[in-house]
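User
New here, help please:
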Amino acid sequence: MPAPRLLGTAAVLALSVLALTACGGSPEAAPEPTTSSAPTTVAPEPTTSTTPEPTADAAPTCATLIADSLVADYEKLGVTSQEQPLFIGSQQIDGGILCMWANFDQPAGDAGQIYGWAKLSDAESDAAQQELLAEGWVREEADDGGVYITESENTALVTDEEGYGMTYLFVAGQVKVADTKQGLLLIEWPKA
């Protein structure tokens, strides 16, 4: 092979290597990690409640019959509930609930709170009211059209500031009961 041709081939090879090197480039160094004083914000994962909200058709429990905040206050004090069927006089009310809230670890003399609720037909309501009145309970009209039936102050063990002991509030289709008339205000059933 003649010398000029060899030089030409060598020059083409050298230029090819140079071109490949220029096109391929040298590997770039990885960027230096930067530090920032600003905190990194990560959006929190959405949470869902495992406790379903009670509906108007649901049956109440001792924990849903009264306000969540009241339940929390009771629990802080070591007060728990015991659920029983609701009786009005001698009549057990189907689907009714009576809740006794107390510190059951304390001696029996420890005071507790009573809250109850039930659906009632007109006939059940009339029969229950008549039985209570026959036993000496006192009837009083409520401002909203309901009827209060309160135990006689002669037999009441616990009374509120106004002298009312255990009291039933009969309204259309339901009855509420508490150990005092003022206690009826704490019953939040049915939920709106």
In short: Residues 6 and 37 are 62 Å apart (CA to CA).
